[in-house]
Specification:
Elements (H helix, E strand, L loop, with lengths): L10 E5 L6 E6 L17 H15 L4 E6 L2 E5 L7
Antiparallel strand pairs: 1-4, 2-3
């Protein structure tokens, strides 16, 4: 029989600064079916918002599903030792 000891290790979850986040949207307007047109992914929300504005202007559609994605890193916290 193998014996295991599990200890709690304090940690933090942080956004990974080495990877850019992604912003995108797709149109969910429609009565029976969604429009479904997508903005594409961008590293900044500005182009997605501009795409939404243009799509609304061209189609009258006003409802969008926005997605934000990023990468996270789990880091153990430094333990405070004796002074």
């Amino acid at each position: 029989m193998t014996r295991r000891v599990f200890r709690y290790v304090p940690f933090s979850v942080e956004q990974d600064a080495t990877a850019e986040p992604e912003y995108e949207a797709h149109c969910v307007s429609g009565d029976e079916t969604e429009c479904g047109v997508e903005s594409g992914a961008y590293s900044d929300p500005g182009p997605v918002e501009e795409w939404q504005r243009r799509h609304t202007q061209e189609t009258g559609h006003r409802r969008y599903r926005r997605n934000f994605g990023d990468y996270a890193v789990v880091r153990p916290l430094a333990c405070g030792g004796a002074s």
